[in-house]
Amino acid sequence: MTTYNYKHLYYFWVVAKEGGMSRAAERLGMAVQTISAQVRELERSLGHQLLKPVGRNVGLTEAGHAAYAQAEQLFQLGEQLPDVLRAATEAPQIALRVGISDGLPKMAIPRLLGSVLAQPNLRLECHDDEFEDLLADLALHRLDMVLADRPAPPNDNVRVYSHALGSSPIGWYGTPELAARWATAWAATAPEAGSPDRLGRLDRYAPPAVPPQTRHPVEATGTEGADGADSEDAARTAATLAQLPLLLPTTHSAVRRRLAQWFEAHHVQPRVVGEFEDSALLNTFGATGMGVFPSPDLVKGDLHTRMGLQRLAGCGTVAEQFYLIGSERKVMHPLVKQVLAHDQTLFDS
User: Fold this and answer.
1) For residue range 111-121, what is the model confidence (pLDDT) as tens digits?
2) CB 97 within 8 A of CB 38
3) What domains are defined for the chain?
């Protein structure tokens, strides 16, 4: 078995990386003659010439390339040793792999995961994908949980469970400029005495029981009761929205279907100027003033403080649903259990 000095191999590796004896000597803080002698000693031990002159520098022979490839692996591992030891002596990380359905409002995710974000040594992995693909990864235990806007459909081949976390009412949001346009459009929909169908769009519109001027023009309730002012405000809200450009989630989102049913119930055809599969993009384009857009009131404060947006109105009984979907395991991931307990409290409060 051939024996050689690993220190000599290290000197050779540095010379090969630096491309010359002088630069290697400068990096190592040694004399050129010393390094040269150590490399020659390595060549004698291995029985092969490793370096050859290339102008004023040195290059690798065929044997030198082979030796360098081995030395590269060896000393790269050596350089990683301090980090490996540090990681081994520290507390182990706790991984939580979360799938996020592409139809779910992204701004709500930190709130849904809020109970575990301060967990010491947490390693959080978030994967944004289509709902069906996330369920497949969950069934294969590539994910610990999925956050979605709908429950998992019945499937004998995919053993998962769905927990309804809660719901958040949908509101309509826009920039201050759109809020001013909203106020004008809202005023224009005010019914005149003796003209309950002034809008011409609504065949079941009656004057509100509360005078219109008592309601703030930039925060219509939009809630739907069986009768009375709340139901009429919802109809008036839908009619006002018909006069403004709207941004909506694409049909992959569960809430889009509810919005379509809400507009249909009030006999309004919205003027849609943009559709977005990603809710973060929907918010971003909404912040440019491109159009009014729907969002769960759970993130109302974030939309206002971070993006300068205003809530213009509610949307009746339309709400965003939130579900936590987990795989069937004998022992539930402790952080999944923590998220589940916290979020049920979040929506109850």
Assistant:
1) 999 999 988 88
2) no
3) 6-89 (1.10.10.10), 94-167+323-348 (3.40.190.10), 169-319 (3.40.190.10)
